[in-house]
What we know:
Blueprint: H1 53-58, E1 83-91, H2 98-109, E2 123-127, E3 143-144, H3 153-164, E4 173-178, E5 189-190, E6 198-201, H4 213-227, H5 250-253, E7 257-258, E8 264-265, E9 276-277, E10 297-299, E11 305-307, E12 341-342, H6 378-385
Parallel strand pairs: 1-2, 1-3, 1-4, 4-6
Antiparallel strand pairs: 5-6, 7-8, 9-12, 10-11
Amino acid sequence: xxxxxxxxxxxxxxxxxxxxxxxxxxxxxxxxxxxxxxxxxxxxxxxxxxxxxxxxxxxxxxxxxxxxxxxxxxxxxxxxxxxxxxxxxxxxxxxxxxxxxxxxxxxxxxxxxxxxxxxxxxxxxxxxxxxxxxxxxxxxxxxxxxxxxxxxxxxxxxxxxxxxxxxxxxxxxxxxxxxxxxxxxxxxxxxxxxxxxxxxxxxxxxxxxxxxxxxxxxxxxxxxxxxxxxxxxxxxxxxxxxxxxxxxxxxxxxxxxxxxxxxxxxxxxxxxxxxxxxxxxxxxxxxxxxxxxxxxxxxxxxxxxxxxxxxxxxxxxxxxxxxxxxxxxxxxxxxxxxxxxxxxxxxxxxxxxxxxxxxxxxxxxxxxxxxxxxxxxxxxxxxxxxx
Length: 387
């Protein structure tokens, strides 16, 4: 992953590595459940959501005693439509509003993802217990003791999860925590691995995030994106790509993907615009035809940030010299001090539904180490607002 512009705690892959870092913050250990496969054997999964048809039709018997432990049909599961289940524990004052949860549900419901029942979209089932009404009460979701700094984050998150998350749910529900901050820093959240079954959102008062619905929605969707296989750069970890139109991109995590009609989009990319070779970006084509309907941002050589005035399929002045005719002039448009080929991704076409302990299969997914999951900090976000 490219060098970061702001100072924050550097994460490492596992506590066992115990790498020393410059700020002496302890490295997080990925939550224990994130490295264990589901116990149940692989089975027919018509909709490809990693929840076997038998679970979604009859319920999930976690220990094989003939008693259903997680009644998926009663929770709204459908064997012919992709489902995601997320239990949300929370510290006092940190749980997102009902309006924000509604927006998260809508992001997934409107996804261009096909299902065997002929519908599109992903049904996401959020469980906040009784705190947000019956719509978001699936029998879990707990308020946990307030801790302004989860440190070390992996160990602390695992302890909270172990105490408040029913073990029978591990194969069905992703687990997340609405917290304040972690590892002595001010990063917005953490997913520990890609893909995974656990994540935290930490845009709390310790770092003066002033977490609006936009910030909570964007960060929740971003961190859950890591759980379901998505990276900061699409197929790689390069960030701030102008052609990567997703909340997985830091440009858009907290402010939304910019649309040419003045609206904002708070989900994953559904298009893969043309790749951009920073050694010779062609200003005349912008993001190509798939950039129509979107605006985008990029970095100028002097470090300032620009946003397109019109749709991003139009010519773009990548080197900020006042014209849009250059095709052979190098420009570091994602600001990482290198010239790379910036490749975008259609996120919705690349979701991984079985991560960590979630799912009915026994095959472990490959993991991205935690050292590559350095997340957007409050300092970076503040700097963005003043460029």
